[in-house]
Specification:
312 residues; Endonuclease Iii, domain 2; two-stranded antiparallel sheet; metal-binding; DNA damage; iron-sulfur; catalytic activity, acting on DNA; Endonuclease3_FeS-loop_motif
């Protein structure tokens, strides 16, 4: 089993506590609905877009394209295309439309230039599942998801936000990446006021996993570390165990550094895309290199390989 190096967590937390971290701008209209839009429309936008926020690139085919002269890749391109559709055809995001969506529609929506999603069949199935269950389980009212949880992520009766979201296939990840990402967006937009903030966790994706392994706050046992270093694909169980360990390591890190987990996630996600890159990390620009295990050992481990998932 992976283990969390608490001593290294503490060391890194003292440095991170001094960083000026800015939350993302949830009102940037390039990617998100403008302020003042109807709450239900905004809620449905984020329910749909976070459901689609997984595994857009493959090693031999990056998800990148130019829109209005700006090169976008990965999640940036995804959410830009989301806003294009939201502006052009807001009905696309209604539960009724989602319940009937076709693969061809998803492919047409999320394709531009040479970029296209690698799994349009799965994405269409996830959207249909989302639409059908909102119609059948919540009487077509997506705001029930928020009303029923009462602001709690977890409740003993099983009706906390994180509990409820598991009913949707897109949000069924045991490590709750998409659920926590959605909670973050809704919290930033003022649609979800979280009461039990001690239950907030960072939404763990490939960037956050790579950083945790390189910093050394999560240590893999040798046979698993060897597999990761060699780029061998891990199985379902190993993927869950690794990401859960990463999530808990960041829980401790946020607590020691007195950081909001959502703000920490914003920092880590940007850091993983701009500095702690997968193949060529820019260590000379990194203010954390002196306490980074990868920089110290010159063993720049990447995140584990696990492609075929809609969890993250």
């Amino acid at each position: 089993m992976p283990w969390i190096d608490i001593d290294r967590v503490r060391s890194i937390s003292t440095v991170l506590a001094k960083f000026q971290m800015k939350p993302l701008n949830p009102f940037d209209t390039m990617f998100y609905p403008p302020p003042g839009d109807p709450p239900e429309a905004v809620l449905m936008y984020f329910l749909v877009m976070v459901a689609m926020d997984h595994r857009l690139s493959r090693p031999l085919k990056k998800y990148t394209a130019f829109i209005d002269g700006v090169e976008l890749h990965g999640a940036d391109l995804l959410y830009r295309l989301g806003m294009n559709m939201y502006t052009r055809n807001p009905e696309f995001f209604t539960p009724r439309k989602l319940s009937e969506i076709k693969v061809e529609e998803v492919l047409a929506w999320l394709s531009v230039g040479g970029a296209s999603p690698p799994d349009p069949i799965i994405r269409a199935a996830l959207l249909r599942d989302l639409g059908i269950k909102i119609l059948k389980l919540f009487d077509g009212d997506p705001s029930r998801v928020i009303k029923d949880c009462g602001g709690y992520l977890r409740k003993p009766d099983g009706y906390g936000f994180a509990d409820i979201m598991r009913v949707f296939k897109a949000y069924s990840d045991p490590v709750e990446k998409k659920t926590m990402l959605l909670a973050k967006f809704l919290c930033y937009r003022g649609l979800l006021k979280i009461v039990d903030r001690d239950n907030i966790r960072v939404p763990v994706d490939n960037h956050l996993t790579r950083i945790a392994l390189r910093w050394g706050i999560v240590v893999l046992e040798k046979h698993l570390e060897d597999k990761v270093l060699q780029g061998e694909e891990v199985g379902f169980d190993d993927d869950i165990v690794i990401r859960y360990s990463v999530r808990e390591a960041y829980r401790h890190l946020a607590a020691y550094a007195n950081l909001d987990p959502f703000t920490l996630d914003d920092f880590l996600w940007s850091f993983g895309r701009s500095i702690c890159l997968r193949d060529k990390p820019l260590c000379e620009k990194c203010g954390l290199r002196d306490i980074c295990r990868a920089f110290e050992t010159k063993m720049f481990i990447n995140e584990h390989t696990y492609f075929n998932t809609w969890y993250y």
